[in-house]
Amino acid sequence: MRLRPILGWATALFLLGSGWATPAYAQISGRVLSTGSDEPLTQAMVSLIDSAGVVIRTTPVDFEGSFFLLSPPPERGPVMIYAEAFGFLSMMEGPLPPEWEGTLQVEMRLEPQPVELDSLDVEVRPRSTKLDLNGYYMREAMGQGFHMDRLDITDNISAVTTADLLRAIPGVTVNNTGEVELRGVANFATFCFYRVYLDGVLMVSPVSWDPNWPTNLIRPQELEGIEVYRRPAEVPPQYAQSGACGVILLWSRGGGRRGNE
Predict the structure, then answer these.
(1) How many CB atoms lie within 10 A of CB 249?
(2) How far apart are CA 258 and CA 217, in angstroms?
(3) Which of 14, 83, 88, 238 has its Cα between 20 and 30 A from that of 96?
């Protein structure tokens, strides 16, 4: 905020009291208002500043924009009154005489100043009705598992197959033959498998096990979203069936053929 020194008292009224005569501690009271509207600036701060620019005293205004200050001792020399408020040009009045008696009433009017804010970039991710209805976004907000929506899929321009998409997911390993492993899940030798669901329908289970199915089941351009849950504790209750250690949920865009057909 800039200062606007004004010599003299353009807006001050001197009301010299007769019953209070201690020059070193004369009173300064007044209000801070908005120019044009006469509305009190309840967030304003008022300070006394000496000729060296040192702040002597500072006080906030009350809910009516009023303030009260004691003057400094005369040896501090002339002082200025400085008022500031967010969104308004600051203002400085004075100098005050080194000595006076009684109460000095001051009215300070600040001009509004538009506040220029830094630019803000907002990214709005489109929401899929299908994913929304199937609880995808709710599980994502709860921090369960790993999620990849349509925007994430299209951003992965190097992904030619679903295997390429799964390789980008933490905790998922896909070997050169397309076999998928979930790190943190027991391997095939322990007879503990993960399940794969396409649009909520179980496609891979401990009974019908083909490690290449997740990568051959559907193509990236046909996918609306992917969810991966690597541990039993992460798996949503509706997909937590016995005999599986993890779950991969594939959500299609609808109308496309399956990749293994």
Answers:
(1) 24
(2) 6
(3) 88
Measured in degrees and rounded to the nearest 5, phi and psi for residue 141 equal -65, -30
State the amino acid at position 252 in one-letter form.
Answer: S
Sheet of 201-204: strand order equals 146-149, 223-229, 244-252, 193-198, 201-204
**Interval 101-110: pLDDT, tens:** 677 888 999 9
Strand boundaries in the chain, DSSP class E: 5-6, 12-15, 27-34, 45-50, 55-60, 66-70, 79-84, 91-96, 103-110, 146-149, 172-174, 180-182, 193-198, 201-204, 223-229, 244-252
CATH of 5-110, one of 3.10.180.10, 2.60.40.10, 3.90.1150.10, 2.60.120.10: 2.60.40.10
- 28 to each of 36, 58, 98, 102, 194, how far by Cα in Å? 24, 12, 13, 9, 78
Indicate the DSSP class of residue 222: G
d(CA 113, CA 88): 5
Whole-model pTM? 0.49
Residue 192 has pLDDT above 90, yes or no: no
